[in-house]
Amino acid sequence: SFYYGTFPAGFLWGVGSSAYQTEGAWDKDGKGPSIWDAFTHKKGKVFRNDTGDSACDGYYKVKDDIQLLKELKVNHYLLSISWPRIMPTGIKAEQLNEKGIQFYNDTINSLLENNITPIVSLYHWDLPQVLQEKYGGWQNISMINYFNDYANLCFEKFGDRVKHWITFSNPWAVAEKGYETGEHAPGLKLGGCGAYKAAHHIIKTHAKVWHSYNNTWRREQRGMVGISLTSGWGEPVDPHSQTDRDAAERYIQFHLGWFANPIYRGDYPEVMKNFIGRKSAQQGLGTSRLPTFSVQEKTYIKGTSDFLGIGHFTTRYVLQKNFPFLQVSSYHTDHDLAELVDPNWPAPGPKWLYSVPWGFRRLLNFIKTQYGNPLIYVTENGMSETVQCPQLCDEWRIQYLKGYINEILKALNDGVNVKGYTAWSLLDKFEWNKGFSERFGLYHIDFNNKNKPRYPKASADYYKKIISANGFPNPREVENWHRKAMDTCSATHQHLAADSLITHMEMVTEIVLPTVFTLCILISIVLLILYLRNHS
Description:
- This protein is about 45% helix and about 15% strand.
- It has 17 helices and 15 strands.
- The protein has helices at about 20, 35-40, 60-70, 85, 100-115, 130-135, 145-160, 170-180, 195-220, 240-265, 270-280, 295-300, 330-335, 360-370, 395-415, 460-470, 475-535; strands spanning about 5, 10-15, 75-80, 115-120, 165-170, 225-230, 235, 310, 315-320, 335-340, 375-380, 420-425, 445, 455, 470.
- An 8-stranded parallel β-barrel has the order 2-3-4-5-6-8-11-12, surrounded by 5 helices. Strands 7-9-10 form a 3-stranded mixed β-sheet. Strands 1-15 form a two-stranded antiparallel ribbon.
- Helix 16 (about 460-470) runs antiparallel to helix 17 (about 475-535).
- The N and C termini lie far apart (about 95 Å).
- About 45% of the residues are buried.
- Its EC number is 3.2.1.21, 3.2.1.45, 3.2.1.46.
- Pfam families: Glyco_hydro_1.
- This is Cytosolic beta-glucosidase.
- InterPro entries: GH, GH_1_N_CS, Glyco_hydro_1, Glyco_hydro_1_AS.
């Protein structure tokens, strides 16, 4: 049932984005190539061979986008820094890019001038390509020191103003999609080992960066360092079946626990160690494919998060499924489970993203119980659409945001320590291997227009009302927001249609006029030649 009420005073409301997905300017002003530049420039890796070369042109539109943040009246903006933009090869000793550093200085200053708190992620997937080519990226332990150098440069250059740092955004996807399935950059398919090795190095890197901040910068800068973990909720198909309950627990532990358990409890979840260890032994391996932490490393990693960032999008029903003994190992067969969805769950966008708000409250309560009720910031939560024509009257996104934010309010009443919420995302943007076919934005971008104008969707207007009211005061007011948002989007849609027509006419003019002009010249030349021949 829907719960009417407001959030505590001081609750933070924001929106987010990431560097590669929005900035563009992939090779401008001294930026080095990232693994995503290399990956997207290979044909067949991304839907329709889209790239983030220009993305949303966010590099050139900082002021425009800050104006959108002001319209929404958000408290904070979650952005990421592109490692190769400020350190082109990823190696501090080799080269720093002052223009890149200046870009982020200007962005941070502009946010603060407009009373918007920057929450900064150091890594949203765009590893410098040089580090991938030279060392194999996150498969190599040397990444720990290179990333720590990069993080310390960011603390030095921006830490006087940035007080909320995220080391890694959704490292699960970095490991699983980058080094297991190869769906994401760097596109490696190192089945059964690659993801675990990458995750192991990422966890150790996170801990090193936290200790660097703690020992060198904390006293002076008084900021916080956390990590942002993305996980769905796993609900047992049969809550009375112990095997289904165990399978649902494994689902969470193989997603969230993989990273959260070492940071909050000092080691990988027991169920991961047991299952991967047993399957490794069945394959005749002398040691587990899941790496181990030494006693010293466990102590060093435990407690290295001042807050926990949580990304959450959807839920699955889970049941036990035994995979037969396979010579070819895989993360996906290690946990012996199958995922199901309820066909009645709304899924207006891509088929992976079902709207299941109640799963969010359960996930937040799981975190409270499992990890000692840590300080939580929701760092990513949103709904995408896949329809190709503009969808400004996004009724389904309004329902999604309303439902999921309401579950946070219920979780607060359960005693969960949530201090802020970040809607994902501010803009329609490049969605990794899906290119521009999925749209998460509260603001629509017309990518056919060279100026890439932004248009508010109905959900932007609705979210703005939630922020202003700090929650859901009463049924009448909330219903009124919905009506006004839908009215506003209709007018914006007409504006967009008119702009699109003008853009189309401009494109036609740009193509047709030069073509006609060229033809006229060619015809004139032919006629002149014929004339001269006849008179000679």
